[in-house]
Amino acid sequence: MNVNKFIPLLLISFGISGVYSQKISKNKKEIISSVETHKEQLIKISDSIWALAETAFDESESSRILADYAEKNGLHVTRGVADIPTAFTATYGSGKPVISILGEFDALPGISQKASPVKEPLDAGAAGHGCGHNMFGTASLGAAIAIKELMEAGKIKGTLKFLGTPAEEKYFAKVWMVKAGLWEDVDVNISWHPNAGIEADVQSGLSLIDFIVEFYGQTAHASADPWNGRSASDALELYTTGINYYREHILPTSRIHYHIQDGGQVVNVVPDYAKLWVRVRDPKRSKMLPTYERVKEMAEGAAIMANVDYKISLVSGIYETLVNRSGGEIMQRNLELLGPISYTPEEDAFGKAIQKATGKPEVGMDSNVYPLKETEKNPGGGSTDVGDVSWNVPNINLRVTVAPKDTPWHSWAVVACGGMSIGHKGMVYASKAMGMTMLDLFENPKLVTKVKEEFKERKGDEVYEPMIDGPPPITGK
Fold first, then answer.
1. How far is it, in rounded angstroms, from Cα 282 to Cα 251?
2. Whose C-alpha in 159, 289, 316, 349 is 20 to 30 A from the C-alpha of 464?
3. How does pLDDT run across 437-463, given as a tens digit for each residue?
4. Could you report how far apart the first and last alpha carbons of the chain are, in Å?
């Protein structure tokens, strides 16, 4: 057999992504075309949300921009769902399957940044999109619109459901949205997250619980009669000291964080009030809860030692993500169809400048599509309220490059990339990959069945219990 005569044919058949172009079906080409058609408007939306940089439960304009564009493109929008003013749904179609897709849009406080590769606040002290949520909600909406257009043309059937989900960085609004039943009719959920690489995400995250500890004492003059005072800040210091000694004795997979929110106001008054926010994490909720109970008990001990009163208030808690490898395999195939993202020399230079500024190796961008990874038993990393969704409906997750390799997350560096073409390219890519994966589910009921069967097997007998107490903590309500 003369192999050489087939080489020209192979070169023609392969796209720049290194996959056979004929593997992309006609409907998937229409998904890609739709995203390209809407691309400039999607970039404009993302940049608007980037500039607004609205934080948890205050994302009124960001939410409105996304909901308005969904409505403009023919989706049925319901605003203020789950008693949360900035949460909304945008739906289209009817019947089964019901496929949902998530869209986040909240920013992080204190990391405002220009679209520049050196640290340079856009508005000193203001918020910034250091987790890329300006791109998150926008890309998901682009995928939803592409699916809606295929439904409208009569090429696929079922129900599409876009969920605008606020306050992921603080409070975790999806927990209240789950409790409100917004995923009860859904067969499979799609999600993504900005990243420094491309992958069909088959890793879990960490469960966590957030609570506030307040100490109440008695004021007195700090010099004239301190014996008449009972110091709330003494209790706070004793409590944090106890937490820090306890770290040696928790599981290696567990984490404890705290943030002192009030330690007293002036130096010459024995403070009668102190407050801190505490967070406990572990890859397994079942292992996180005993640590949480112990840390709560330590607050009582600190109060006894300082002779003050105390109060513990639950903020919210979230589950680890329930992985679905069957869904990951579907997403992986679509990433291989799309191939890597291409960058200009200027974009690669921007990435290297970010790496230099943050003390990382100056290797530039990494947007290769690697094979599907094995699922780790005890992953590190962060936490997300997507976990609560994943314990109620099968979830397929994606990560896409929007920043250079090794970029510190939740930092000015991610904000910088999210406001320029590196972020734009990742967002558009994510929109295509999710739209193509949703299409697979709409077109092939057997895939939906396979994903749902794995979900049931992995969940087992676990009964989901939302870790919230009362309504969402929305200012002004």
1. 8
2. 159
3. 999 999 999 999 999 999 999 999 999
4. 76
Q: What amino acid is encoded at 234 in this protein?
A: D
How far is Cα 347 from Cα 421, in angstroms, rounded to an integer?
Answer: 7
Q: Which residues pair with 160 in a beta bridge?
A: 92, 99
Kindly state the tokens that stand for 274: 């102190």
The residue ranges of DSSP E strands in 308-415, in sequence order, are 309-318, 395-401
Task: Give 266's DSSP letter.
Answer: -
Two structure tokens written together for 271: 């403070």
Locus of tokens 């003369």: 2
DSSP one-letter code for 359: T
Separation between Cα atoms, residue 349 and residue 118, nearest integer Å: 12
**Residue 84 is inside which H or E element, if any?**
none
76-79 β-sheet, strand order = 76-79, 88-94, 158-164, 98-103, 188-195, 395-401, 199-201
The pairing of strands 309-318 and 207-216 is: antiparallel
Q: Which residues contact 349 (CB under 8 A, 6 or more apart)?
A: 364
CB 464 within 8 Å of CB 175: no
Give 133's contacts (C-beta < 8 A, 6+ positions apart). 49, 104, 105, 106, 107, 168, 169, 194
Structure tokens at 193: 């997250």
Structure tokens at 294: 């112990």
Cβ count within 10 A of residue 287:
17
Closest CA to 162 of 80, 75, 42, 82: 75
Residue with tokens 């921009």: 65
Q: Cβ of 477: how many Cβ atoms within 10 Å? A: 10
Please state whether beta strands 199-201 and 207-216 pair in parallel, antiparallel, or not at all (unpaired).
unpaired
Using one digit for the tens of pLDDT, what is the confidence trace for 335-383? 999 999 999 999 999 999 999 999 999 999 999 999 999 999 988 889 9
Q: What is the DSSP string of 63-74?
A: HHHHHHHHHHTT
* Residue keyed to tokens 């007293």: 264
Cβ(152)–Cβ(74) below 8 Å: yes
169, containing H or E segment:
none
Phi then psi for residue 398, to 5 deg, are -135, 145
C-alpha 180 chain-centroid distance: 20
